[in-house]
Write a structure and sequence with these properties.
The chain has 364 residues and is an alpha+beta fold. The protein contains 8 helices and 19 strands. The longest helix is centred in the C-terminal third of the chain and has 26 residues. It is globular, with a radius of gyration of 21 Å.
């Protein structure tokens, strides 16, 4: 899928500030992503709803029932895919492949095909974003209390400069050596990989692809706020989804038609801790070794791949309210930014995101 028909990005808008550029008087905003081809016909007129827990969060699925496949088989297939992702990529599971690599002694270690594929993709995105997404920050994630060792004690001081420097020295995407012929990665000793900025989106893609292979060509998958829609509902309507807003945001309610496309939102409000009256976000900047503190409240990315939407939402959040939109526009991403400022929240959007905005509001 290629985004077409882009227009110039609108200037930054003070949300709720009475700017004439705002869509005053509209209850809803509607996004219609472009389609390269008409959506496929739904396989039936029955919609099933499934859900559960995975990866420390919840998952849900709405599936148009395919002929000859019962609800239990689809539920089992989804859980099988999710369990497979956890078995490879969860650092909270001692027996997972990532945990084994993170705890391995120095040496070159062969990787399974799923592990290699995601690591290779993460390294490509790290290269494209100059490390704004970095799969080697596991030591920093643990240090700041967002990893398997658990949160920092409430009465503990913040990590010292020396501790941050030591954790940074164990990571760095540019220093991770890969042996492509052997499908292996070099563990110099102490390096901890972490795919938290990409794994949920990857899981969404895997589930979506598995359902499609089973004939469930029309479905909506959500894992911890990352979504992907395929096909349309039996009535021909798209899968309408409300885009997550930062708490207390005065922005208009925004709906998007997820037809063969994915959506990811990164927010500084999702996971954080407070220390001496200040909040520290779970999103870390590998360049500083510290949680981001750039004013961005949320970044939303629309992309054909949920994995890439997830990764780029994280990367743009790390880049900040100025470099992020500049990169997103140059890279050709459909992205929306909300920045907290003393005047109130300000939104920015790339031309490709702006091109999806409908002129008329639509009720859910």
């Amino acid at each position: 899928m290629t985004f077409k028909g882009s227009k110039a990005a609108p200037p930054p808008i003070l949300i709720g500030g009475g700017s004439p550029s705002e869509e005053d008087g509209q209850d809803n905003r509607v996004l219609i992503p472009p389609m390269s081809a008409p959506p496929s016909r739904p396989p039936s007129d029955i919609v099933w709803s499934l859900g559960g827990e995975t990866m420390g969060t919840g998952w849900s699925a709405r599936i148009v029932a395919p002929p000859g496949v019962d609800k239990e088989a689809l539920d089992a297939a989804i859980r099988q895919e999710l369990d497979a992702v956890v078995a490879v990529f969860s650092p909270w599971e001692a027996a997972s492949e990532i945990s084994r690599f993170n705890g391995a002694p120095a040496g070159t270690w062969a990787l399974s095909q799923p592990f290699w594929t995601l690591l290779d993709a993460a390294m490509d995105i790290a290269d494209d974003t100059n490390g704004a997404v970095d799969p080697t920050l596991g030591a920093l994630v643990d240090l700041w209390g967002f990893g398997p060792p658990g949160p920092r004690p409430a009465d503990a001081p913040l990590p010292s400069d020396e501790e941050i420097d030591a954790a940074q020295a164990l990571g760095g995407w540019q220093s991770l050596r890969l042996n492509r012929e052997a499908r292996a990665a070099v563990q110099p000793g102490g390096v901890k990989l972490d795919f938290s900025g990409i794994a949920k989106g990857h899981a969404v893609d895997r589930v979506s692809e598995r359902l499609t292979a089973m004939g469930a060509t029309s479905h909506l998958i959500e894992i911890g706020g990352e979504l992907r829609g395929a096909g349309v509902k039996p009535d021909g309507q798209p899968w309408w989804v409300e885009i997550e807003q930062p708490p207390g945001s005065p922005a208009p309610r925004t709906l998007i038609a997820l037809v063969d496309i994915a959506l990811a939102t990164s927010g500084d409000y999702r996971k954080a801790f407070s220390h001496e009256g200040r909040r520290y976000s779970h999103t870390l900047d590998g360049r500083t070794g510290r949680p981001i503190d750039n004013g961005l409240a949320s970044v939303t990315v629309v992309h054909p791949s949920a994995m890439k939407a997830d990764a780029f939402a994280t990367a743009l959040t790390v880049m900040g309210p100025y470099d992020g939109p500049e990169f997103a526009e140059a890279y050709g991403l459909a992205a929306h930014f909300v920045e907290r400022t003393p005047r109130g929240p300000i939104e920015r959007m790339t031309p490709l995101y702006a091109a999806m905005l409908e002129d008329e509001s639509k009720e859910d």
